[in-house]
């Protein structure tokens, strides 16, 4: 007599069925894991986009001047505050070295050299100097420069923040 519970055909079907069930379970786990990973990545992207939008809003709407310099040290982008502060348009600022659009007759040459060297070396700096808007009297400004390096450590950008401190300087002189 042939016992169907222990027959080789029954065992083979039972074992192959288990293997197929296991393969299906593994495939489902991979699909679920991939979907969760995609959903997490999409959430991270949404958060990053929201953060970037907020930062762009701050940089574009602050009254302080904000400029992003490219790796060569030229202005790549400037906010409206920078345009107002220096009485220059985006077109005039873009592609210019900061010293050429900020400095004037009575700007301290040593301070200007320190600013230019900091930009050239990709090193952070802070300086107070006399800045020259295009169509009005000079202003006193604090200029903060911060280097932004890429993953490899190479300089990618510099961020400049320029604050008009003319009122404070006048008060100090009195």
Concise account of the structure shown:
This protein is α+β, with helices and mostly antiparallel strands and 174 residues long. It contains 6 helices and 5 strands; from the N terminus they run αββααααβββα.
Morphology call? elongated
The counted number of beta strands is 5
C-alpha end-to-end distance: 117 Å
Overall mean pLDDT score?
Answer: 84
Annotation field: number of helices: 6
Q: How does this model look, in words?
A:
- The chain is an alpha+beta fold.
- 52% of the residues lie in helices and 21% in strands.
- It has 6 helices and 5 strands; from the N terminus they run αββααααβββα.
- It has helices at residues 8-61, 80-86, 90-93, 98-102, 109-121, 166-173; strands at residues 65-69, 75-78, 125-131, 139-149, 155-164.
- A 5-stranded antiparallel beta sheet has the order 2-1-5-4-3, with helices on both faces.
- The longest helix is centred in the N-terminal third of the chain and has 54 residues, at 8-61.
- The chain starts with 7 loop residues before the first helix and ends with a helix.
- The model has no long low-confidence stretch (mean pLDDT 84).
């Amino acid at each position: 007599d042939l016992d169907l519970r222990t027959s080789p055909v029954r065992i083979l079907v039972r074992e192959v069925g288990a293997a197929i069930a296991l393969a299906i379970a593994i495939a489902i786990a991979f699909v679920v894991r991939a979907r969760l990973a995609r959903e997490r990545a999409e959430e991270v992207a949404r958060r990053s986009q929201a953060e970037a939008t907020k930062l762009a809003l701050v940089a574009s709407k602050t009254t302080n001047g904000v400029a992003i310099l490219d790796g060569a040290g030229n202005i790549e982008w400037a906010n409206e505050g920078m345009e107002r502060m220096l009485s220059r348009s985006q077109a005039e600022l873009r592609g210019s070295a900061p010293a050429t659009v900020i400095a004037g007759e009575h700007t301290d040459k040593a301070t200007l050299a320190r600013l230019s060297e900091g930009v050239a070396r990709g090193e952070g700096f802070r300086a107070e100097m006399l800045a020259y808007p295009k169509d009005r009297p000079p202003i006193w400004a604090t200029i903060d420069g911060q280097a932004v390096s890429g993953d490899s450590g190479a300089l990618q950008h510099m961020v400049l923040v320029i604050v008009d401190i003319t009122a404070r300087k006048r008060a100090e002189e009195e």
